[in-house]
Amino acid sequence: MALSTTAPDRPVPSSNRWLQIIFGVVCMVAAANIQYAWTLFVPEIQKTFGWDRAAIQVAFTIFVVVQTWLTPIEGYFIDKYGPSRVVMFGGLMTGAAWVTNSYATSIWGFYLGSVLGGIGVGCVYATCINNALKWFPDKRGLAVGLTAGGYGAGSALTIIPIAKMIDAGSYAQAFFTFGLIQGSVIILAALFMRAPAKDEVKYSTKVLQTRRDYTLGEALRTPVFYVMLLMFTCTVTGGLMAVAQLGVIATDLGVKHFQVNLYFFTMAALPFALMLDRVMNGISRPLFGWISDRIGREKTMFIAFAMEGIGIVALGYFGSNPWAFVILSGIVFLAWGEVYSLFSATAADTFGSKHIGKIYGVLYCAKGFAALFVPVGNLIMQATGTWSTVLYTVATMDLIAAALAVAVLRPMLKQHHANNNAAVPNAALAHA
């Protein structure tokens, strides 16, 4: 079991590594619609073909499962070929996904589009997160939060244009047009991405971070990995449910077409909520990442996960009020978006950055497990006649994760880092 050697900490040219964050954010923004704008298309697809809503939402589940469960394989290609090539391939698949959807006339056509989209977005997402973790050991929470924030907030730029194009009676045209735009932007930005050299990074002095680079096999043999996997699954389930079902929930609660009047403009409740949610989701990731760089990952997890759980409970109770629907959905997304910055940063702190593409890739599979609950949510709602049952269930999962963060994960990480610190001098003596 080899120990990595670490070069002396030194500053790096900020213009160099911050440009890498910018390229990553651009790619994430362009890839975001495949997940976050899907809810706009579901009612139109159902209206056009008359398929069962749960069957249509299987496409969303397929997308998330493919995106997440292939991430460990993508991590291998990132380490082998570098970020640029992997992201360019992801851009090609991302564009092809929506172009395929634009021509789909059967449910299997949309399922194929979901497979292509899962491959494409998985390549983009995994690579950009991986690159941010490697360039910024000293500011992992902030760097990965900004990168993930591009994915969370990116669709805010295009939600209204897409909604207008769909309302004009051409959801297929929306798929085709934005598919080409998104794929092209990703490929262009990918040309400028690269991984850092060993002497271009420095470590944090405020957060416990291992100087040892675990292999994937070594990480999978630690109990702390599975605690993080359980917590990730619990917290991401509620957010994914809201992402995929928000349009459906708004329709069933009777608030979809309510006009929200903000004096200087008026907008229907659903697109306004979606736009606000994307902004809050984007703010959440760098905000909570920055906080975690200062007070620690586990304390930040407790605050955010508890906020998400309480927000989902309130949405289930007050969601039939249009104003409450808009505000509470925003709170839910503010508290949910940070999971992607906190868990990735915690994984790199715990296991090192050399193999983080593979390690976080396996951890990120939690999102795929959570996606399996999305169509189940429709079935529960149909059986109980209310969304409250579904929302209260996922809220409970969030609150469990919040408790685990401070009661279980925090002491386990302290012991993990203590064991690593004890191993370093012993290894040094053995090689003296």
From TrEMBL:
Cross-referenced NCBIfam families: oxa_formateAnti
Molecular functions per Gene Ontology: oxalate transmembrane transporter activity
One Gene Ontology CC term in the entry: membrane
Alphabetical UniProt keywords: Membrane, Transmembrane, Transmembrane helix
Segments passing through the bilayer: 21-42, 54-73, 110-129, 141-162, 174-193, 224-250, 262-280, 301-318, 324-347, 359-381, 387-409
UniProt protein name: Major facilitator superfamily MFS_1
Residue ranges occupied by any Major facilitator superfamily (MFS) profile domain in the UniProt entry: 19-413
SUPFAM superfamilies: MFS general substrate transporter
InterPro entries, sorted: MFS, MFS_dom, MFS_trans_sf, Oxa/Form_antiport, Proton-linked_MCT
